[in-house]
Amino acid sequence: DTGVSQDPRHKITKRGQNVTFRCDPISEHNRLYWYRQTLGQGPEFLTYFQNEAQLEKSRLLSDRFSAERPKGSFSTLEIQRTEQGDSAMYLCASSSTGGYTFGSGTRLTVV
Amino acid sequence: AQSVTQLGSHVSVSEGALVLLRCNYSSSVPPYLFWYVQYPNQGLQLLLKYTTGATLVKGINGFEAEFKKSETSFHLTKPSAHMSDAAEYFCAVSEIAGGTSYGKLTFGQGTILTVHP
């Protein structure tokens, strides 16, 4: 078990472009979460999946954000028409009854 | 709704001194409580967690925390600070998700720990 993997580690994009991040959870974990962390703040919940079902979305998740978890395995988070305010660390986590594990995150910089 | 307050955004100690990072929470149901550490440009590493049972929880790297329900607190301590402890620390509370899994986490604002030689 290699833990929770996130790709890419870093992404620099121009304002207005679309970006997509990928998260591979621990294989036996049925829940997958996305968080956003801006500089000097704690992580904030964005959305989570139980298997392939997206069960909750934060009000922070504007219409430009969409997340999927096809087949209940990996997940993608897409941001359309990026804005400078989207610059942040995007963290993925997965959980089961035994634990809650975070990935190393994707650092997004919008220029 | 749950919330977490970490008292002190910056704490500075000398190497070998006691570390005390404060965390108070608000939750309408019995909470699960966590402390995470984050090094620059890295993800979150779990230090320790409280779910049920013994209220004094021991974690990695010599850290421990005590759940005090009457004070709604979960302060993190370490008897003797090491230079390698310098990092940002986050307290978090989780709802219990149907008794089968952890739910989403609500984090505090974080406390940056500086350790002086």
Characterization of this structure:
The complex is a heterodimer of chains A (111) and B (117). Chain A has 111 residues and is mainly beta. Chain A has no helices and eleven strands. Chain A has strands at residues 5-7, 10-13, 19-24, 31-37, 44-50, 53-57, 65-68, 75-79, 88-95, 100-102, 106-110. In chain A, strand 7 and strand 8 (75-79) form a beta hairpin. Chain B is an all-beta fold and 117 residues long. Helix content of chain B is 0%, strand content 60%. In chain B, the strands form two sheets. In chain B, strands 2, 4, 5, 9, 10 and 11 form a six-stranded mixed sheet that branches. Chain B has a five-stranded antiparallel sheet with strand order 1-3-8-7-6, with no helix packed on it. Chain B is globular and about 40 Å long. In chain B, 34% of the residues are buried. The model of chain B has no long low-confidence stretch (mean pLDDT 91). At the A-B interface, strand 4, strand 5, strand 9 and strand 10 of A face strand 5, strand 9 and strand 10 of B.
Could you give the topology of this structure?
The complex is a heterodimer of chains A (111) and B (117).
Chain A: E1 5-7, E2 10-13, E3 19-24, E4 31-37, E5 44-50, E6 53-57, E7 65-68, E8 75-79, E9 88-95, E10 100-102, E11 106-110
Parallel strand pairs in A: 2-11
Antiparallel strand pairs in A: 1-3, 3-8, 4-5, 4-9, 5-6, 7-8, 9-10, 9-11
Chain B: E1 3-7, E2 10-14, E3 19-26, E4 32-38, E5 44-50, E6 56-58, E7 64-68, E8 73-78, E9 87-97, E10 101-107, E11 111-116
Parallel strand pairs in B: 2-11
Antiparallel strand pairs in B: 1-3, 3-8, 4-5, 4-9, 6-7, 7-8, 9-10, 9-11
